[in-house]
Design a protein that fits this description.
Blueprint (H helix, E strand, L loop, with lengths): L2 H10 L11 H7 L6 E5 L5 H8 L3 E6 L2 H9 L7 E4 L11 E7 L6 H9 L2 E12 L3 H4 L13 H6 L5 E11 L14 E10 L2
Parallel strand pairs: 1-2, 1-4, 2-3, 4-5
Antiparallel strand pairs: 5-7, 6-7
Helix pairs in contact: 1-4
Length: 200
């Protein structure tokens, strides 16, 4: 889907497309970290960026959908986040940040996109990427059905160079209790997770 299609989807939604909280695994990884600067890539209607801001992070929410960003900015706490409408292939932060989070960014060049956003992490900082795994198709979980844009742990691991230490890179199962959509979905889903720390 391009930006115009996402704009249409957000405008048709009743207050937002995505769940109000970030994925449980993102909360699990980020909660112990000291707050600092962060970028939420493909922020959509803002759930992860707002959650970070509530916890003291100076957060930028990046997305190419103006309608999604408008929903995000209108949510409680929306004025605490810097919302940026831009393409992940073109935008650059002013300086590296302590945390880069990407939830469900699916592109034809996903590995290259992950490699690019990884460069936004400062030495000592953290990268967290979660997205639909290719095995999610057979599992019947919600999400894209095109294997070309889906993740595997191997794809995520291969996106990083030796400046990163990989803490976790694996498939995880997300239950309906951790639904991606605002209205929920009944089936479990298979995701790929990458948690890495930049060491130099």
């Amino acid at each position: 889907m391009d930006a115009a299609q996402w704009d249409e989807r957000y405008r048709a939604s009743a207050g937002g497309v995505w769940a109000t909280q970030p994925p449980a695994v993102v909360r699990e990884i980020v909660t112990p970290l000291p707050s600092g600067t962060a970028i939420d890539v493909a922020t959509g209607d803002g759930r992860t960026a707002l959650w970070l801001a509530e916890r003291g992070w100076a957060c930028t929410g990046l997305d190419f959908s103006s309608a999604g960003l408008a929903l995000a900015a209108a949510r409680p706490g929306g004025d605490a986040v810097e919302w940026v409408q831009a393409d992940v292939h073109e935008w650059e932060p002013d300086a590296p940040v302590d945390l880069v989070v990407s939830c469900y960014l699916h592109l034809p060049d996903s590995a290259a996109a992950i490699a690019r956003i990884a460069q936004w992490v400062t030495p000592g900082g953290t990268l967290v990427v979660v997205g639909h795994d290719v095995e999610n198709i057979a599992a019947g979980g919600h999400g894209p059905s095109d294997p070309a844009i889906l993740y595997t742990p191997e794809v995520l691991r291969g996106a990083l160079d030796d400046r990163f230490r990989i803490a976790r890179c694996e498939r995880i199962v997300r239950t309906s209790a951790d639904a991606e959509l605002r209205e929920g979905h009944p089936a479990a889903a298979v995701d790929s997770l990458l948690h890495a720390v930049r060491v130099r």
